[in-house]
């Protein structure tokens, strides 16, 4: 690839999107996915319904991460309000600081959840493949 074919404006826009925009939108996506996972846990194609008899503790562990993500925003707002009321000075800064930490907390929990869920996904796919092979034979 020659340097003449590189669109530097497109590269700059993509870099700014990855560095600024994505970190600001990913926590909301993680939160939404956690809520969807918790609400769809009884569906036929969910990990919980497919693997709960084989790996109940592991499914519970992954579900705990979803539960932590689901409660972090309501609890974070309550803690921010209480801390702002209790603080004698700079209560607004404390309030905003706690809200910022609360907003980005799903990134940390979501990362840990995804690392733990990698092996769960592998197990689920292996079970699906084995069921398909059993129906073919």
Ordered list of secondary-structure elements with their pairings:
Elements: H1 8-39, H2 47-51, H3 56-86, H4 91-136
Helix pairs in contact: 1-3, 1-4, 3-4
Features:
single chain; mainly alpha; flat
Short description:
The chain is built from 4 helices and no strands. It is an all-alpha fold.
Describe this structure as you would to a colleague:
The protein has 137 residues and is an all-alpha fold. The chain has one domain (29-135). The protein has 4 helices and no strands. The protein has helices spanning 8-39, 47-51, 56-86, 91-136. The termini are far apart.
Mind describing the biggest β-sheet?
Answer: none
Euclidean distance between termini CA atoms: 49 Å
Number of strands: 0
Q: Give the total of domains.
A: 1
| Percent of residues in helices | over 70%
> What share of residues are in beta strands?
under 5%
Order of helices and strands: HHHH
The average pLDDT score comes to 85
Q: Outline, from the CA principal axes?
A: flat
Rg to the nearest angstrom?
A: 21 Å
What's the helix count?
4
Structural class: mainly alpha
């Amino acid at each position: 690839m020659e340097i003449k074919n590189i669109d530097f404006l497109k590269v700059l826009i993509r870099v700014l999107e990855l560095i600024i925009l994505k970190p600001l939108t990913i926590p909301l996506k993680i939160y939404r996915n956690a809520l969807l996972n918790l609400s769809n846990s009884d569906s036929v194609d969910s990990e919980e319904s497919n693997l709960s008899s084989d790996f109940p503790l592991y499914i519970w562990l992954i579900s705990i991460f979803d539960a932590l993500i689901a409660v972090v925003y309501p609890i974070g707002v309550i803690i921010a309000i209480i801390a702002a009321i209790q603080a004698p000075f700079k209560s607004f800064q404390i309030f905003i600081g706690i809200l910022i930490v609360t907003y980005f907390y799903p990134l940390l929990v979501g990362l840990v959840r995804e690392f733990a869920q990698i092996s769960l996904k592998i197990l689920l796919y292996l079970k699906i493949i084995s069921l398909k092979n059993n129906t073919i034979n």
